[in-house]
Design goal:
Elements lengths: L1 H17 L4 H11 L3 H8 L10 H13 L3 H14 L4 H13 L3 H12 L5 H16 L7 E12 L10 E4 L2 E4 L9 E15 L4 E14 L7 E13 L4 E14 L7 E13 L4 E14 L7 E15 L2 E14 L6 E13 L4 E14 L11 E15 L4 E14 L6 E13 L1
Antiparallel strand pairs: 1-4, 1-16, 2-3, 4-5, 5-6, 6-7, 7-8, 8-9, 9-10, 10-11, 11-12, 12-13, 13-14, 14-15, 15-16
C-alpha cells in the first residue's frame, strides 16, 4: 500500500545515514526504490544470521520478502526485528500488512493498535485509522473520510457549578443562597455527530477539514441544555518523519437553553508543530488565536490566545504518557471577564488485548482575573484541579466503541461564590463508518 511505502522510504533514508559504509545495504535500498525487491532479497539473504543480523538488514529482508510473496519469511524477519527492538513501529506496520495478506486480521489489527497507542504523527495516525477501517470492512482500499455518531448518558453531582457554602458574601455582607443557586445534581443525554475529510495535495502537503455537532439535554436544568457546532479546515505539512506542522482555521457556534438565537460564536487560527526527538519521544506545540462574540453581552466579547507545549513518550508499544503546559490570555472590554491563565496537564494511556484501552488524565489551571466586580472587594483568582479516568471497549458485533469515564473537578477560589467541586460519570457508545 502506498502509505506503507512512505514509511519504508523514511526508514531506509535513516538507514543510509546510519550505514553509509555498507554498500550492500545501499544497493539493496536502490533495488527496492527501483521496484526490484527480488534483487534486494537475493543480495541480502546470504548475510542473514539469526544471532548477528543487524536491524536494518532484517527490515529490508522483511519488506523485500513481502513484496515477492515470501510472506512466511517476511513475517519471520520482521518478528525477529521486533524482538530485538520492541519499539520498531515501522516494522510493526509492515508486519501488520504481512498478516493482512496471510489472512490473519486479528494479528494485523494487534500491531496497528500497538503503533496507534505510541502516539505517532498525525499523518501516520490517519493512515492507521484507514487501515483499521479496511480490516473491519474486509477491504484494503483506504478512504480519505470518516463519519461518526455517538449517544451518551452523563451524571453530574453539581451540574450548575454551585458553591460549596450555603452563605456567600456580596458587598461585604453575608447572603443565604436560594435552592436554585446551590449545587444541583442532574443527569443528561448527549448526542453527537461529525466527520472529517482530507486530500493529499502533494507527497508532503495535505488539506483536511472536520465538523462536529454536540447536543446535551438535561433532565432538570433545561436552561443548561446546549447545542455546540464546531469545525476546522486547514493545511498540514509532513517535512519528514521527524518534523510536521500545520495551520487550521477554527470556529464554533454555541446555543444555551432554547432561545431562538445563539449564545456565542468564535473564530480563529490554530497553528501547530510536532518534532520527533527520538523514536519514542516527541515535542509538540499547539497554539490558538481567536475571537469570541457574545450575542447579548457584547462587552464580554474577547480576544484570546493560548500556547500549549507538550512532550509525548512511548513507554512500550502499547503505553504512552503525555505531559504539557498551557498558558494564555483572554482580553474583554469588561476587566472582570479578562483573564490570564497557566497550568499543567498529563495523560497516561495503555492498550490491552481484545480491544480494551484505559487512560487517566489530570489538569491544573491557575486563573487570574484582571478586574473586580462591584459586588466584591477583590479580583477573582481560581485554582482548578480536574482528574479523570476512562475505559473503552470495542463491540465487534455492532462495530462500535463503548466507553465509561469518571471525572472529578475541584475549583478553589478567593471568592466563595466560585468555589465548588463536582463528580461526573459518562457512558458513551460511538459508531464510525
Amino acid at each position: 500500500m502506498q502509505y506503507l511505502l512512505i514509511f519504508f522510504l523514511v526508514f531506509v533514508s535513516a538507514s543510509i545515514f546510519a550505514n553509509d559504509d555498507n554498500q550492500n545495504i545501499k544497493t539493496a535500498i536502490d533495488f527496492l526504490k527501483n521496484q526490484q525487491p527480488e534483487a534486494a532479497y537475493k543480495l541480502l539473504k546470504p548475510h542473514y544470521d539469526k544471532k548477528t543480523t543487524p536491524e536494518n538488514i532484517l527490515f529490508i529482508l522483511g519488506v523485500s520478502a513481502k513484496k515477492i510473496g515470501k510472506l512466511t519469511e517476511a513475517r519471520a524477519y520482521l518478528e525477529h526485528l521486533i524482538r530485538l527492538k520492541p519499539n520498531a513501529h515501522r516494522a510493526k506496520l509492515e508486519l501488520a500488512q504481512v498478516f493482512r495478506l496471510l489472512g490473519n486480521d486479528t494479528e494485523a489489527k494487534k500491531y496497528l493498535l500497538a503503533v496507534k497507542a505510541s502516539n505517532p504523527p498525525k499523518q501516520v495516525m490517519d493512515n492507521i485509522e484507514r487501515f483499521l477501517q479496511a480490516i473491519e470492512k474486509g477491504n484494503v482500499a483506504p478512504k480519505n473520510w470518516q463519519l461518526f455518531t455517538s449517544i451518551g448518558w452523563q451524571y453530574d453531582t453539581n451540574a450548575n457549578a454551585g458553591p460549596e457554602s450555603e452563605t456567600v458574601s456580596f458587598f461585604g455582607l453575608p447572603f443565604n443562597l436560594s435552592d436554585d443557586a446551590k449545587p444541583i445534581e442532574d443527569q443528561a443525554i448527549t448526542l453527537s455527530a461529525g466527520g472529517y475529510y482530507f486530500t493529499n495535495l502533494s507527497k508532503k502537503l495535505k488539506w483536511h477539514s472536520s465538523l462536529l455537532v454536540n447536543w446535551t439535554a438535561h433532565e432538570r436544568l433545561e436552561t443548561l441544555d446546549s447545542l455546540v457546532v464546531s469545525g476546522s479546515t486547514g493545511l498540514s505539512w509532513q517535512q519528514n518523519n521527524q518534523l510536521s506542522l500545520g495551520l487550521s482555521m477554527i470556529g464554533d457556534f454555541v446555543r444555551i437553553g432554547y432561545e431562538n438565537d445563539f449564545y456565542s460564536a468564535s473564530f480563529g487560527l490554530a497553528p501547530y508543530i510536532r518534532y520527533a526527538i527520538t523514536k519514542q519521544l516527541s515535542f509538540n506545540v499547539n497554539t490558538t488565536v481567536s475571537q469570541r462574540k457574545y450575542n447579548h453581552q457584547r462587552k464580554r466579547d474577547a480576544n484570546r490566545w493560548t500556547i500549549a507545549p507538550s512532550f509525548s513518550y512511548s513507554l512500550t508499544a502499547n503505553t504512552f504518557i503525555k505531559v504539557g503546559y498551557l498558558m494564555g490570555q483572554e482580553d474583554a472590554e469588561l476587566a472582570y471577564f479578562s483573564q490570564d491563565f497557566w497550568g499543567f496537564n498529563g495523560t497516561v494511556f495503555h492498550a490491552f488485548d481484545y480491544g480494551i484501552s484505559l487512560s487517566a488524565n489530570a489538569t491544573f489551571l491557575n486563573t487570574h482575573y484582571q478586574g473586580k466586580e462591584a459586588a466584591h472587594n477583590q479580583r477573582r483568582h481560581d485554582k482548578m484541579l480536574r482528574t479523570g479516568v476512562s475505559l473503552s471497549y470495542r463491540l465487534k458485533f455492532i462495530e462500535s466503541d463503548i466507553s465509561a469515564s469518571y471525572s472529578y473537578t475541584n475549583n478553589q477560589s478567593n471568592l466563595d461564590i466560585n468555589q465548588y467541586d463536582r463528580h461526573q460519570l459518562f457512558l458513551t457508545i460511538r459508531k464510525s463508518i
